[in-house]
Amino acid sequence: MTDPTTASDLAGTHDAARTYELDRAHVFHSWSAQAQISPMVVTRAEGSHVWDGEGRRYLDFSSQLVFTNLGHQHPRIVAAIREQAAHLCTIAPAVANGARSEAARLIASHTPGDLDHVFFTNGGADANEHAVRMARLHTGRHKVLTTYRSYHGGTHLAVNMTGDPRRWASDQGSTGTVHFFGPFLYRSPFHATSEAEECQRALEHLEQVVALEGPATVAAIVLEAIPGTAGIMVPPPGYLAGVREICDRHGIVLVADEVMSGFGRSGRWFAVEHGDTVPDLLTFAKGVNSGYVPLGGVAISDAIHATFAHRAYPGGLTYSGHPLACAAAVATIRAMEDDDIVGRAERLGAEVLGPGLRELADRHEWIGEVRGTGAFWAVELVGDRRTRAPLAPYGGSSPEMAAIVTGCQERGMLPFSNYNRIHVVPPLTTSDEEAREGLAILDAALTAAAG
Predict the structure, then answer these.
(1) What's the CA dihedral at 430, 432, 433, 435 to 10 degrees?
(2) Phi and psi at residue 331, in whole multiples of 5°?
């Protein structure tokens, strides 16, 4: 069969109808019932915007899947990929190359404590898989504790570590994972009435779970430093430090999952900095290079690194530290440093997103709570503020939520929605004006959906 593909086809500039036709004929989409989806055709993107197949522009308030931290088509990242491609497109992970070495150095320069060694992966799920493997080999134990409201990836172990409903279809109870309740004051499982109570009771609960599971059987506690897809619940003061103390007392490895919250998203280089806590392992992906080329990794402490100094680590990936991905990471981190992107994200949250969302909460009865930090916010939507009944069921959707999402899209904004929440997670480079435009669109969509 003759392949009619041309260079312009590959650039995404050919007929949008043909793109859609080929997608529906051949592409199998993740987390979807294939016959029930109509994916948007995107032909180009720039900064905080994308364009569909009809040439309509949308404000990207989702950063796609919360990874385009420096926006779309950032010129420094694009130039770095081009330059690297002209010099060295790919190489096996066993050899050293400049892009990988410099990316590791730059990452280590921003990770907290002694997390100075980097194992590169292709994304966040396999970063979490390898972090758990390292923890198990380091401790000689098997169990892994994670929270119910969490997401750690779609591979087999990572999805079993996940707490949210995406785990259910693949949960075979054979991976040694145990779930517990993390702190979430708005829907407290501990009947707490303050952040201090929530912190104390959540730590007491975790201590009890560790005791009942047997401390000598627990290899790792894996926590999203700030849970992302599960609801952007910023831990109360003292919680991360308390988990660190429990781990230290029982010889348990603390793994911070910073796949979504890392690289400036929370207004810090890494969200664990909000809790002044240094984990033993820290996983990352997404914002490390704004998702331009798949890349993830594990930042490793000196103690765990020493475990494998004279003992081979039994793991690896063909594309570990891929030169194009690492070149994109180098350009991303340097741009973040030069342009103070972390400070910009902190200010965007403190001066624009936070105040703007609280104003929306004053006007809309459906908003039960807004919470977040930096460019990392969640709007909790409820049918009744008194009972806090969610506007969509856990693990599902509702006509009201669908109307809000559709209303945003019709007004030119791409939202991030999950169950009964809208997450406000624009690129960290989003201007104040663009952020206010997105909030105004969300305001209008809420008004229209509520009738």
Answers:
(1) 60
(2) -65, -40
pTM: 0.94
Residue 204 corresponds to which tokens in the numbers above?
A: 């007491």
First to last CA, the chain: 54
Condensed to tens digits (0 to 9), the pLDDT of residues 229-282 reads 999 999 999 999 999 999 999 999 999 999 999 999 999 999 999 999 999 999
CB 302 within 8 A of CB 116: yes
Both structure tokens of 220: 């790792």
CA angle 336, 338, 343 (to 5 degrees): 60
Nearest residue to 282 (alpha-carbon basis) of 298, 305, 301? 298
Q: For the chain, state the CA radius of gyration.
A: 22
Supply φ then ψ for residue 385, to 5 degrees. -65, -30
Residue 8 CB neighbours (<10 A): 9
Q: Are 71 and 427 in contact (CB under 8 A)?
A: yes
| 231/224 Cα distance (integer angstroms) | 11
Nearest to 112 by CA among 284, 334, 260: 284
Between CA 234 and CA 189 the distance in angstroms is 16
Both tokens of 422, joined, read 């809208």
C-alpha triplet 261, 265, 266: angle, nearest 5°: 80
Query: Dihedrals φ, ψ of 422, to 5°?
Result: -110, 125
Alpha-carbon distance of 360 to 30, in angstroms, equals: 33
Element (H, E) at 349: none
d(CA 153, CA 324): 23
pLDDT in the model for residue 174: 67
Q: Tell me which long-range contacts 355-362 makes (C-beta under 8 A, separation of at least 24).
A: 356/435, 356/436, 356/439, 357/424, 357/439, 360/439, 360/442, 360/443, 360/446
E strands, 53-175, are 57-60, 117-121, 143-147
Q: Which residue has the tokens 């420096």?
A: 70
Q: Cβ(390)–Cβ(420) under 8 Å?
A: yes
CA distance 314 to 133: 9
3 state DSSP class of 52: strand
Strand partners, 47: 72
Q: Which stretches does DSSP call E strand in 175-280?
A: 177-180, 218-224, 253-257
**Can you list the residues of the chain whose pLDDT is less than 50?**
1-9, 12-13
Beta strands 49-52 and 42-46, pairing class = antiparallel
Rounded to whole angstroms, how far apart are CA atoms 234 and 278? 17
Q: Which residue matches tokens 């309740």? A: 181
